Amino acid sequence: MQKLYKQFGILNLFCPFRPNGAYLLRLDIYEERMVCRMLCDLARTEGIANMTEIKIDGKAVEKLAPDFIKKIPEKGSFEGTYFCPPDKENSEFRESLGRKYLDWAN
User: Fold this and answer.
1) Confidence class for position 57, pLDDT limits 50, 70, 90
2) Taking the domains of the chain in order of start, what are their residue ranges?
3) Contacts 24+ apart (CB under 8 A), 44-47
4) Which position among 34, 37, 87, 89 has the lowest Cβ density within 10 Å, counted as fewest Cβ atoms?
5) Cβ contacts of residue 11 below 8 Å, gap of 6+?
6) Per residue in 66-105, pLDDT tens?
């Protein structure tokens, strides 16, 4: 996937309707920072426990801090695994993320 992300850009391939997976994002890269923002918004809405194995700048953290979610840093790295059980998925919110960050039409 890393090769595809580099070739096409992660924002062109990321879909809020299929966010489950492991991520290693460089926050100094705008597109990767936007994916981090969407993942944090998803975790805040669908359940903060959906984001696991979190590392910020290589240091393990127990859970996402509200300050981090509110203001994603413009440098450093974010690592984590997002998994939302199907019964907890919020389709309306996921669609709103697409409209807000990915320029999807209404």
Assistant:
1) very high
2) 22-102
3) 44/69, 45/90, 45/93, 46/84, 46/88, 46/89, 46/90, 46/93, 47/84, 47/88
4) 87
5) 31, 34, 35, 101, 102
6) 999 999 999 999 999 999 999 999 999 999 999 999 988 8
